[in-house]
Amino acid sequence: MKKIIKNPYSHFILLGLVLLTLPYLAEAGAIRNSTVTVIGTTIIYTIAALGLNVLLGFSGLISLGTAGFMGLAAYISAYVTETMALPFEVAVMAAIGIPTLLGILVGILSLKFEGIYLGIATLVVAEILREIFINVTPFTGGATGALAGRPVLAGTFQLNRIQTYYLIVVVMVLIFILIHNLTKGHLGRALNAMRGSEAAAQAMGVNIFKYRLIAFGIATVLAAVSGVLYVHYVGLSYPTTWNLMLSLDFLAIIVVGGFRSIFGTFIGSFIIFAMSELFLKPIPALANITPLVKGILIIIFILYYPNGLANIKHQVSHWLVRRKGKRDAFGQTKAEKKNLTRAEVRENDTV
Amino acid sequence: MTPSKTKELALKIEDVSIAFGGLKAVDNLSFAIERHEIFGLIGPNGAGKTTIFNCITQFYKADSGSIHFINAKGKETDLMDLSVHEIIDEGIVRTFQNVELIRELSIMDNVLIGAHHVMKQPLLGQLFNRKAIRKDEAESREKAEKILAFLDIEHLKDLIAGSQPYGVQKKVEIARTLMSDPELIILDEPAAGLNDTETKELAMRIKQIRETYQTTILLVEHDMRLVMDICDHICAISFGKRIAVGTPKEIQSNPEVQKAYLGEEGELE
C-alpha cells in the first residue's frame, strides 16, 4: 500500500481520476458546464507547457514559438479531418509529424550555436507561421479560422464534448507518466548536467547538440499534441490565438508552477489560464486586467518563489512545523532536530 | 628524461602549440605518461597547465602537434580527431579547477552522470521505463554507492551537492570520474581550497585510486608537498614551454625550475 502511495504514477492517475469526475459534478449541478470546458482547455495548455518545461527547466533553453507549433498542429489536424476527410488517426500523425520535423529542422539550424539563438529562431518561425495562418486561406480559412469536429476514433466512435474531455484527461495522464519516465533517469540527468555545467556535461560524454535537439523535439511533439487536442475540443482555430502572448503565457506557467515539476506545470497552467477564465473574466471590472495580473504574478514568483508553487509546500510545511512544532523530550521541535542532524552530518564530514 | 622504453606509454604529447591571439599559451610542448603512473604538471600561474588539459580533453583544439592516447588494450588513438564528448569513450576523464557539479541535484545523481557514456539506454526504452532500463539504473546506483563508500561520503548521497562544503564537492567530482571506468584521470588542481588534513587525505586517496581502479593519473597542482609526495614523474613548464621532466627529486634540484618559480638571482619574485 505504501508503495502505491509513494509511486508517482499513482499520483498522476489520482489527478486524472479527480479530473474525470468533473463532468459528473457539472451534471449534478455542483459546477457549471463552462467550468469543465475551461478545465479541459487548461489540461491542453498543460501538455504544451510541460513540453516547454522539459526544454526550459531541464536543458535551460528557451523557445518563444510554442504557440506557433501548437497552431500549426491544430490547422493540420483540422485540414486533414475536415477538408481531406481522412480519419482522425491519420490527422493526428500528420499534425504531430509535420510540426516535429519543422521543429527539428529549426533546432538543427539554431542549436549548433549558443542556446539563446533557439529563442530567436523559434520566435521568427512562430511569426512566419502566424502570417501563414492569416494568409494561406485555402489551408487555414484565414481570419475566419478553421473548423474541426470532435474526434472520431477508429472511424466509428464519434466522441461528444464530454467524451473528448475524457480523452484529453487520459492523454494528459499518459504524457505525465512518459515524461516522468524520461526525465527521472538517464535523459533527465544528461539534460540537467547540460544546464548545470556545459563543460562537465561534455567531459562526461554528453553530446550537447544531440541532447539539445532531443529536448527541443520533446517540446515540439507536446506542443503539437496540445494543438491537435485543442482544435478538436474547442472546434475551431483562429490565427489570433497563436500569437507571442500565448507563448509567453507558457513561460509564465513554468515560472509560477515550478521548473522541472510535472505537477507544478499543471498548477501553473491552472493559475495562468483557468483562474483568469473562471474568476477574473466573469467580473467586468477585472476582465481586462488579466495580463496585468499575470505579469504581477510572474514578478512575485521570480522575486520570492523562484522555484515556483511546486516547491512552496516545503516552505509551508517548514513554517508550520516551526510555528506549531511540538517539543519532544529534549525540548526540540521537529524542524530544529532536522537542522541539527544536518549540521552534524556536515561537521563530521569536513574533518 | 623521458620514461624508459620498456614501460608502456598511456599518453604521448608531441610538439603541441596553441596560441590565443598573439599569446602562445602552449609552445612546442612534449611529454609522455606511462601507464599506471601518477604524473604531475607544475608551473607558475599562467604557465599553460590548464590549457594543456583543455587540449588533451579537446575543449581546445591545439594549433599544431599531436596528442595520442594508448588504451589498456594497446590501441592508439589520435585524440585530436575526436570531439569533446567522445574523449570519455576512450577512457579519459577529468575534473575541473572550479568544481563543476550540478548544484541542485543530489550527490548520487551527480555521480551517476559519470556513467552517462557507459549506460546505453535507448530513448524509447526510457520512455516506457522498460525492465532493462530499470536494471541498468539499479546497477549503476549500486556501483555509485560503492564508489561513494570508497571515498567515505556514502552517507551524504541523497543530499544536494551545491549545499555541501567544498571538500565534499571535490570528492563528488572524483567519484564522478571513477563512475566512468576511467583509464586516465586528469585532475585539475585537486587540492585547491582544501585544508592541510584534507590535502593529506587527498594524497592517500589518489594513490588508492591508482591501485584500486588501475588507472593512470595526470594532475596539475600548486601544492608542491602533494606533488612531490605522490608523483612518479613531473613535468615543469613556464610560459607554455617545457623546462624540465623528471622524478620529483630531479625536478626539485633543477636550476631552471628554481629560476622559474623564484626568479633570477637577486630578484625578489
Total domain units of chain B: 2
Question: Could you say how many structural domains of chain A there are in total?
Answer: 2
CATH superfamily of the largest domain in chain B: P-loop containing nucleotide triphosphate hydrolases
Shape of chain B: globular
Largest sheet of chain B: 6 strands, mixed
- CATH architecture descriptor name of the largest domain in chain A: Orthogonal Bundle
* Subunit arrangement of the protein: heterodimer
Round the Cα radius of gyration of chain B to an integer and report it.
19 Å
Strand content of chain A: under 5%
- Which consecutive residue ranges of chain B, at least 5 long each, have pLDDT under 50? 1-5
Q: Sketch the major β-sheet of chain A.
A: 2 strands, antiparallel
Helix content of chain B: 25-40%
What share of the residues of chain B does DSSP label as strand, in percent?
Answer: 15-25%
How does CATH name the architecture of the largest domain in chain B? 3-Layer(aba) Sandwich
Terminal CA distance of chain B reads 28 Å
- What is the name of the CATH topology of the largest domain in chain B? Rossmann fold
GO molecular function (chain A): branched-chain amino acid transmembrane transporter activity
Main location (chain A): membrane
Subcellular location (chain A): Cell membrane
InterPro entries (chain A): ABC_transp_permease, LivM-like
